[in-house]
């Protein structure tokens, strides 16, 4: 057991987590260290899970008594300044698998999209180029059905392996999933362990050409060098959320160290040591103004954790 910065927030849970063999357990861990916004308070417990056995034991200890949050690269989430009252789990180790078989790539939930795309490129497999430049992991991408340039990741899925909160393993084919614009739902509540993705044979030249074109577009139109969590709001059906936000003149609007990006209005940047509340207040401001003007309720694409 590797324990860092030990503080006794909940003795029973702490002792049970400590008993899990080789689990890396950190208490009072600043979530600002693990998110692209670089904000957020501390998690009661932060667990780095290296195998399925550890994950099952954490579920056995915590579910349903204690909050559980699975964190990928932290590129699509905003934790409050008060932090997270529960267990934040980071998957790694044996769960970080990546292998290829003909036109099928099997990747673990914590594998980055960029790693999968590079692996596909080596074997001249096409299909995921649209995600080049998206900084998230496979698990987070599937949960939110990440998409760009007219493509979505769930269209590549052949099978997904999920561990429910009782520790049971389920294998779902794509036709068992309920997915659409920026969502993917499973028949059970649980955690994605891995997925099989279907690709098409192409040429390295064509794949690289598409990747370069997509990245060029992102660099031109998105603040990819800034501290953001990607697109903040989903597009209302048949509408552009960016145009809605521009109509109420929010581009560049700042609250303390957070602002709507001057480059792309559907991004909020932490440009000057913002607090999570500054970012959240901008989100709420936009939602309120859009509703007052258009009677449209905006939905966030980013996850807001710990806010009332």
General description of the model:
Its main location: cytoplasm. Its EC number is 1.3.1.98. GO terms for molecular function: FAD binding; UDP-N-acetylmuramate dehydrogenase activity. Keywords: Cell cycle, Cell division, Cell shape, Cell wall biogenesis/degradation, Cytoplasm, FAD, Flavoprotein, NADP, Oxidoreductase, Peptidoglycan synthesis. The structure is a single chain. This protein has 308 residues and is of the alpha+beta class. It has three domains: 2-94, Uridine Diphospho-n-acetylenolpyruvylglucosamine Reductase, domain 2, CATH 3.30.43; 96-220, Uridine Diphospho-n-acetylenolpyruvylglucosamine Reductase, domain 3 (2-Layer Sandwich); 223-305, Uridine Diphospho-n-acetylenolpyruvylglucosamine Reductase, domain 1 (Alpha-Beta Complex). The protein is 26% helix and 29% strand. The chain is built from seven helices and 21 strands. It has helices spanning 11-18, 52-62, 113-122, 138-143, 204-221, 241-247, 276-294, and strands at 2-4, 24-30, 42-49, 68-70, 77-79, 84-91, 98-101, 104-108, 125-126, 147-148, 151-152, 157-164, 169-173, 178-180, 183-185, 190-198, 200-201, 254-255, 258-260, 268-270, 303-305. The strands form seven sheets. Strands 1-2-3-6-4 form a five-stranded mixed sheet, covered by helices on one side. A hairpin with a 2-residue loop joins strand 10 and strand 11 (151-152). The longest helix has 19 residues, at 276-294. The radius of gyration is 20 Å and the shape is globular. The protein starts with a strand and ends with a strand.
